[in-house]
Design a protein that fits this description.
The chain has 5 helices and 33 strands. The protein is mainly β. Mean pLDDT is 85; it is low at 1-49.
Length: 406
């Protein structure tokens, strides 16, 4: 981030959609004094120099009677906790909002900016510029006593309290290890190793502290679907051409391979030693580490949404059918909620929360639709935990709202 952080501006598109609903009766975050102080010191930091802004507070949640006035998320059983902004220098666009644990969120933008935010209060603890405007952030996680931020070319270790680079004791230089290959998907942290996939089908394991490449594997076809953790030191990988690999990440050993007829548009899911895939070849698959293909459910259309697993059920959106609940052991359909599409992103008090990029829907455990709210395509909805987690709703301009289950 640059040192200057002017007050964020809401886009016309966002204002015309959800914010007309969410802002009804709610406080709007004003330009704060810390942002004004930051403007006075504008200037681009050097590449290896962190220039951080002072802490910035979020607007506290309105009173209960105000919350119930026109807010569609509150109407679905949530309480608004705070309204905050990720720093937004020169109109930068908020790209990712990642819950890294320990009551912390990491926000990054399309101009190389990074901010650490308190999940409980919405306070921006620090913000800085870490990369150039052409750099894409891939993932963030807590490790080695700090925050590790991974871009397409490197992984940087930052001081969690200040955002400053952690310097090597012997080199005196920032700890910023190069990636062996260009990651195509968000890297995973597996027992001190960064594991990621590439556009040309490589899967790479690197030591977090040294950057040493520990192993490398490969599948046929490029990889754009994010690999998924299946347990300690095990991941599931799917290529765009339908090649599946279940890999032990300590050594890169392949535990199971399989071939289906196409890749996936959305995220995969896992449960224990089973990998679940909603494929573009019009099928849902369950593939086990020990026994390979366990079941396949064919559908009439390409599957374009990701799937989710919880408590013995697999949830997948099937065009022409709706949101289907499948028995994870057999693939048999338990129910289908007609007219519901998207991916199940969480469960609140036993109720499924489904997001399709513009509409949020709640569905009960038997497949009945409880509520449906149009939020608009200018917003992103995330959860910090699949079961009874909080919802974070953000727009490109950096406004973030936290809602917690009531």
């Amino acid at each position: 981030m640059h040192t200057a952080f002017p007050a964020p501006r809401l886009s016309r598109q966002v204002t015309a959609s959800l914010l007309l609903l969410l802002s009804a009766g709610l406080a709007v975050l004003p330009a704060c004094a810390s942002a004004e102080r930051a403007e006075a010191g504008a200037g681009a930091p050097a590449k290896d120099q962190a220039v951080t802004t002072p802490a910035q507070s979020a607007t506290p949640a309105p009173k209960a009677d105000v919350q119930n006035s026109g807010d569609p998320i509150v109407a679905m059983g949530y309480s608004l906790r705070w309204i905050g902004f990720a720093p937004n220098p020169s109109g930068a666009r908020l790209v990712n909002l990642v819950s890294v644990g320990n009551d912390l969120l990491v926000a990054d933008d399309n101009r190389g900016g990074l901010a650490l935010i308190s999940a409980s209060s919405g306070e921006v603890r620090w913000a800085r510029s870490l990369a150039s405007s052409s750099t894409k952030f891939m993932n963030h996680f807590l490790a080695s006593g700090g925050l590790v931020s991974v871009t397409g070319s490197s992984a940087s270790l930052l001081n969690i309290d200040t955002g400053l680079d952690v310097f090597g004791q012997t080199t005196g230089r920032p700890i910023r290890q190069q990636m062996s290959r260009l990651p195509a998907t968000p890297p995973l942290l597996q027992d001190g190793r960064i594991v990621y996939a590439t556009f040309d089908g490589h899967i790479v394991g690197q030591a977090l502290g040294t950057g040493l490449k520990l192993w490398e594997s490969r599948v046929t076809g490029g990889i754009t679907t994010a690999p998924i953790a299946m347990g300690p030191n095990v991941i599931g990988v799917l290529s765009d051409s339908g090649n599946v690999a279940i890999i032990e990440t300590a050594t890169g050993t392949s535990l199971r391979t399989a071939s289906i007829f196409a890749g996936s548009e959305g995220p995969m899911a896992s449960a224990g030693d089973t990998l679940f895939i909603a494929s573009r070849d019009q099928s849902v698959y369950a593939i086990g580490v020990r026994d390979g293909l366990r079941w396949r459910v064919r559908t009439d259309r390409e599957l374009r949404d990701g799937l989710a697993y919880h408590d013995g059920r697999v949830y997948v959106s099937v065009p022409g059918v709706g949101l289907a609940a499948l028995d994870a052991a057999t693939g048999n359909r338990i129910w289908a909620a007609q007219g519901v599409d998207g991916t199940v992103i969480g469960i609140r008090a036993g109720t499924l929360i489904v997001w399709n990029g513009s509409t949020i829907t709640s569905v009960d455990a038997d497949g009945a639709v409880i509520d449906r709210r149009e939020l608009g395509s200018a917003l992103k909805v995330r959860t910090d935990s699949f079961v009874d987690g909080s919802l974070y709703i953000s727009d490109d301009a950096g406004q973030i709202r936290k809602y917690s289950p009531r």
